[in-house]
Amino acid sequence: MLGTELNVVAFLELILAVYSMALVFNSDKKVFKIVHAVLGVMWAVMALLNMFA
Question: I need a labelling partner for 43 at 20 to 30 A (CA). Which of 5, 14, 28, 51 fits?
């Protein structure tokens, strides 16, 4: 059961990473682009850690 829950969490984190990258492309200000890029990378790393660690 725990493996299924971790897969769901990893999937949701990947959705958040894609959403953050979409916000990077749609943001006008450079500060927002940087913040969303950092958050997108953070979500992607956390998803990978949940899948493989």
Answer: 28
